[in-house]
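Re-running the complex after MR caught last week's input typo. The corrected sequence lines follow. Everything else is unchanged.
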Amino acid sequence: MTTPLLSLRDIKKNFGSAQAVAGVTMDIHRNEFFALLGASGSGKTTLLRMLAGFEAPSGGDILLEGSSIAAMPPNKRPVNLMFQSYALFPHMTVAQNIAYGLEMDRLAKAEIKSRVSEILEVIQLGHLGGRKPDQLSGGQRQRVALARALVKRPKVLLLDEPLGALDKKLRSEMQLELKRLQHEFGITFIVVTHDQEEALVMADRVAIMKDGALLQVGTPREIYEYPETRFAADFIGVMNFLPVSVASGGYQGKEGPLIRAADAPELAAGSAAVAAIRSERLGVETQGENSLAGEITDIAYHGLDLLLHVKTPLAETPVISRLTADVAERLAPEVGQTITLGWSARDTRIFPA
Amino acid sequence: MTTDRRPILLMSPALLWLFGLMVVPCLLILVLAFFRRGMYGGIEYTFTLENIALVFDPLYAQIFLKSAWIAGLAAGIASILGYAAAYAIAAMPRHRQSALLFFAVLPFWSNYLVRTYAWIVLLNREGLIVNLARWVGFEGELPSMLYTEQAVVIGLIYNYLPFVILSCYAPLSRLNPEISEASRDLGASGWTTFRRVVLPMTVPGIATGFVFVFVLSIGNFVTPALLGGGQFQMIGNLVYAQFLTANDWPFGAALSMVLIMVMLGLLMAQATVADRASGGKAGDNG
Ligand SMILES: Nc1ncnc2c1ncn2[C@@H]1O[C@H](COP(=O)(O)OP(=O)(O)OP(=O)(O)O)[C@@H](O)[C@H]1O
Ligand SMILES: [Mg+2]
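Corrected-run output:
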C-alpha cells in the first residue's frame, strides 16, 4: 500500500472550553477531490485552518507524505488555502496578486511572468491582469483567489466555501470548472462546503462533519444511498422518516402492513426504529414490496420535477414524493386527492430511533 | 430634477461656519501681505511684493527650514512611535482595544499649556529626569535638556502622538486578518508580510498622521516658546512676533501665506497617497 498524501490522526482543537474539532482521523489520497460537508459551526473551517497552519492542533498529528507538519509554520507548508473571503491584496493588481506566491518561492522573473499569464488564460481573465481586485465582479475575484493558490502548485489545495458567494447558475458552472482544474493540475483538493449537492457533484469522496467529528466518509454514492446514521440520511437529499417498531420479518408502522427492508441492521425485536425512504424512491406508480396511502396536502412545482406532500397515518409530517415532470403530467395530481405510494424493500433504510 | 439635495443641506452649516469665520478672515489678513507697512505700524495701502520677497531672505528662509526640519523630525518620530503603538493596540483582543485607545487620547483632556509646562518640570536642571539620572548613579555635569531643540521636538511629539495613534489605528483595525494570513499562506515570512501587505495597506494612516503632526508643528509657537527658551524661534514665533510685538502685519501675513502654501501642498500630497492606496486606476502598476 502506498502512503496516503495527507493523514489526520485524531486531530483536536479546543477554543477555551469549547471543542471545535473533536478528534478527526482520516486519510486523503493523491489527486483526490475531497469534500468536507457539514452544518454551520461543525468545525470545517477550523479543520482547514489547522491543515494550513493557522491554528495549532490541541491534540493529534497531521502527516504529509508520512512526516508530521503539525509544527510547521504556514509559509513553509506545501499547502495552500483559498479563503472564504478570498483575501485578495487590494493594493496589488490581479497579476501582482498571482505573482506574489511565486516571488516568495524566489522563482526567476521570466518564469513568474510566464506562469502568471498562463494561469490567467486558464481562468479566462487574461485581459484583466492589470485590474485591482475591487474592479472585479464576485465571480472574477473568486477565480483570482483560486489562481493565486493554484499557481503555486501546492501538494494540497484547501478551499473554504469557494463558491459560497456566487449565484446558483455561476455556482454550477464553477463546480465543473473546479473539477476540470483539479484534473488538469493534478492537485489534491479539499473543499469545504455546506451545500450537499455541491459536494456530491464535485467530490470523489465526501466526509460529513457534525459537532467537530466525522460522521461518515465515502463516495458520493455511498453517502447518498447508504447513509450510516439518521443524521447523515437527513443531511443529504430529501428523506422521509417513518417511526416503526422492529417486528419479525419487517417493521411495524403505526398501522397497516409490515414495512419491508432488504438490508437492515440487527435490532432487538420490539425496539423503536425509523424507516427512511428517499423522496424519489417513493412513487405513485412504483411497484414494490411496500405501499402507503394518504391524502395530497400540497404540491410544490420545481420545474424539472414535482414534490407531492402526502399526509399518511404513519407519520406526523407529510411524506414527500418526487415525481418527474412526465409522470406528473400524465397523472395530474390534485390537492385533496387520495393516492397510494409504493417503494421497493431495497430502498428502505432502517436506523435505530 | 431628482438630485438629492440633503447632503448639501447637511453640510452647509459647517461650510458656512468655516467659510465665514475662518476663510474670509484669513483672506483678509493674507491680502495684507501685498501692502506696505506704515511708518508707525499701520498699513499703507500701496501694492508691493517686498514682503513676500523678504520671506525668502536667507535670514527668514533659514527659520523656515529650521521649522520644517523640527516639524519633520517630530512628525517622523511620532509616526514611527504612533504606528507601533497603533499596531500593538490593533493586535489586542477587541474588547481591550477601546480602553487602550482611551488611554492613548487621555492627554488631550488636559490643557495644552499645562501639559507643556509639565515637560518643563521634567526636563529642568533640577527636574525629574536629572534627579532620576542622579539617583541611578550618574555623576557629573548633565547637559541641560530644557531650552534645546531636542526639548522642542520631544514636546511636539508628546503633544501630537495621540493623533498619529488614532490615524494609524483606523486602517490597522480595519485590516482583515485573513489578508495577512493569505500572505503567510503564499509563503511570505512575517516580516515580508508586514513590508509588502500590511504596511502598504495602512500607509494612508501614517501619511495622515505625519502631515497632521507636521502641519501642527511647523506653525506651533507655544512649545518652542516654552521648551525652546526665549531665543529659539520657529516660524510660528516669528509670525506671532510680527503681529503682536513688531507690529508688522504685512510681513506677518506674507510669512503666514507661505506657511499656508506649504501646508496645502502637503495635504494634497497626503490625499494623493490615500487615493493611490485605496485602489487607484486600472492598469497603474506601483
Ligand atoms: N477563534 C475562535 N475562538 C473561539 N471559538 C471559535 C473560534 N473559531 C471557531 N470557533 C468555534 O468553533 C466552532 C467551529 O467553527 P468553524 O468556523 O470551524 O465552523 P464551520 O464549520 O466552518 O462553520 P461555517 O459553515 O459557518 O463556516 C464554532 O462553534 C465556532 O464558534
Ligand atoms: Mg467556515
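None of the earlier attempt is carried over here. The pocket of magnesium ion (ligand 2) is lined by residues A 44-45, 84, 160 (CB under 6 Å). Chain B has one domain: 52-278.
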